[in-house]
Amino acid sequence: MSFVKGLKCRECGEAYELKPYHVCEYCFGPLEVEYDYDKISAAVDRKTIEARPPNLWRYRELLPVESEPRIGLYSGFTPLLKADRLAEVLGVSELYVKDDSVNHPTFSYKDRVVSVALTKAVEFGFETVACASTGNLANSVSAHAARAGLRCFIFIPDNLEQGKVVGSAIYNPVPVAISGNYDDVNRLCTEIADKYGWAFANINLRPFYTEGAKTYGFEVAEQLGWKLPQHIVVPTAGGTILPKVAKSFEELQRVGLVEQSGFKIYSAQAAGCAPVVNALHRGTDLIEPVKPHTIAKSIAIGNPADGYYVLGAVRDSGGWGESASDEEIVEAIKLLARTEGVFTEPAGGTTVAVTKKLIEQGRIPRDESIVISITGNGYKTLEAVRDSVPVTHDIAARLDEFDRLYERLEAGKTAGGDQASTIASPATGS
Amino acid sequence: MTLQRFYLTYSQEKIKEPIVYHVGHKFRVVTNIRGASISEHVGIMALELEGEQDEIDRAVRWIAEQGVTVEPIEKNVIE
What we know:
The structure holds two protein chains of two kinds.
Chain A (H helix, E strand, L loop, with lengths): L3 E6 L5 E2 L14 E5 L1 H7 L2 H5 L29 E3 L1 H7 L3 E6 L10 H15 L3 E5 L3 H13 L2 E7 L4 H8 L4 E5 L3 H15 L2 E2 L5 H6 L2 H10 L7 E5 L5 H14 L9 E7 L4 H8 L24 H11 L3 E4 L1 H15 L5 H15 L8 E6 L24 H16 L4 H4 L8
Parallel strand pairs in A: 5-13, 6-7, 6-9, 7-8, 10-11, 10-13, 11-12
Antiparallel strand pairs in A: 1-2, 1-3, 4-5
Helix pairs in contact in A: 4-5, 9-10, 10-12, 11-12, 13-14
Chain B lengths: L1 E10 L7 H8 L3 E9 L3 E10 L1 H13 L3 E4 L7
Antiparallel strand pairs in B: 1-3, 1-4, 2-3
């Protein structure tokens, strides 16, 4: 049974049938999936959802799929950690971390959006899928395509480090490295999408792809006991996830799965690539593109496709946005790791750093519920923190050597010093 | 003949320049503005170009040389 009415232009409202269209023919605005919410309200309740397998398809009535999904059966339903140790450091009473660093199979929230996009690709009859990506998206499209038995093309700039290509190439897509500057590569990818008629996850399947991001918000609400958080901080790159988390909360209220309650949503960007936060701070709707310069590569998108809708979602909710410097991002990655045992990539560090800033500014009250959105895994970006983790204490394989080290560590602890730096051996480097 | 859709971003100092007018005169392309917005900091425009692919490519290169950012209508698709 389908609960989808069709596609609709987000700008002029023109309606389209459910096909792999993504841009309005009239005003060039992006298209959005339209649902029959009355039908959905009648069809689902909390118990039905709770009885389903713990994957993103447990919310399938609110996703644009018609068939029985065979992709993404292990994606989603990632942990929502009650982060008491981090809460203590930040001086707040109720803090959670929604942890997509352990999303299956490629350790980022992209496994959600790609699951939905590739399910639609199969429904539409595509045999080849593709994407343009420097990291997480390519990893996810490659892995899901492999499992679904679809032919897959990955387009990347030719100056991408080899290490980043391996995480996709292992799944046996056709990796195509394109020479030219970033803008040229960007333009070519859309031309290929137009000419070859393949299913480009984030281009011609974008209306469906972005809907997958709602599952992040659905899970947060369900894991909080079918309640919305009062505050949620979300990173902004292309602008996919933040408006869709807001939409997910609105939909849950609309179909009666959660009580009506206010929530505020906040955008986190790296200071070296903050076009949306800049526009928020300036009070304008027009986003001025920037040339990214940050270690947070997975969110370094200078002219986000859905940036305008991030502004709308943040402002409608009464939220705000902030940016974090590369140094603040690294510190925040370390803070999350040492307090909660979660190792995130710089995008997650950005979100933690910005949450800290918003709390210090008084924009997020200390006594209300807060969710920090972690969307990717730190093991993919070791280079970002390699030079700032504690050095090793080097000893020979003799007990007396360890005894002496231990005495020094204990003395350092009594003196209140930092253990590693107090007795630091030379850094082992690499 | 090909139809292509672009998203142009004008910086503050380029906002007053009649770039689209010049494109229509310098190149054998049909220009069709489908949406535009302007603030004191930035101007944006959704522009359709119709013509031979080579001519569209030349027009796009020329627009970029004038200091206007030219992107596909989907903006940044490399994620």
